[in-house]
Amino acid sequence: MTAETQTLSGTRYRPNLLAVLGLTLVGLLLFWLVVNAIKEPADFFNLFLVGLTVGMVYALIALGYSLVYGILELINFAHGDVFMLGAMMTITLVGWFSITGSDHGKVVLLIVPMLLICVVFCGVINVTIETIAYRPLRSAPRLAPLITAIGVSFILENIGIVWKGPAPVNIPDNILPRSQVFDIGGVHYNWNKLIVLIVTLPTLALLVWLVQHTKQGKAMRATAQDKEAASIMGINVNRTISFTFLIAGGLAGAAGLLYALYFTSASWDTGFRLGLFAFTAAVLGGIGNLPGAVLGAICIGMIEQFNNGLSWHSPGSDWTTSIIFSILILILVFRPEGLLGERTPEGG
What we know:
4% strand; two-stranded antiparallel ribbon; single chain; ABC transporter involved in vitamin B12 uptake, BtuC; 13 helices
């Protein structure tokens, strides 16, 4: 055996400190979850269902981040504020249609028109942002559109303040029916959670079908892979990018509707906080990877609810934001490509 072979064999099985630390953290998290599930199984599974519901709302926002990043490699930090305007539009529509907590029949009839209005409203806002703010900077250094996205975020937040004021805006807390779908061993599942899934799951399925099986979806994937080659093949790159922003904005509008109806409150800074949560979910799953964005969002939703609701050695709701942003830092350190993403030459 040569000295070079001995050196290689000596380093091949050397433990990686970062990997050991990462596995230790994951092991501690799993241990904490298992102990809580054993101690209070009903509370654990109730929080699981709430986390799944909240995670689905986050997934709609996270998919917008992933779509835009996949085609432009741009982190659109204004996306969360587009979602906020969708929630504000939902609150406005509730007032326009005079929907009260006892009008469940009216809600069933109007939820699809309200969804379409919010989707179109936020989609048009997103396309306008892309046309005015991002398209002129497409050939500029990456820092320029990133700073522009932050500036657009502040503009949208101020629009929200002018539109609805600085205080949180509320709607009746029982617009979505809260009667039980089932109750098994103290685990409750209500209609308001089921309605969120009924709206979200077909939306996600429609998005996957659009991207994977339509001509426009093929154009989106080709543009994301190589814009110049796609243009040579006859694809209208500008129109394809605008269409992507339209879809991403529409997803933010759908998330805004579900958030406003489920949580019954929104304010001008709602998009900042939840937008960062959704961005963390997109990075966790693999930025640019659509299934990864959904998986990351569900994980973030459950971590948030478990931290807020579990009793055994839970840090508590005051630490939720810090924990989620710590997850963002850890995933960038240990696995920058995310759970389902692929490592690129740039390392992301």
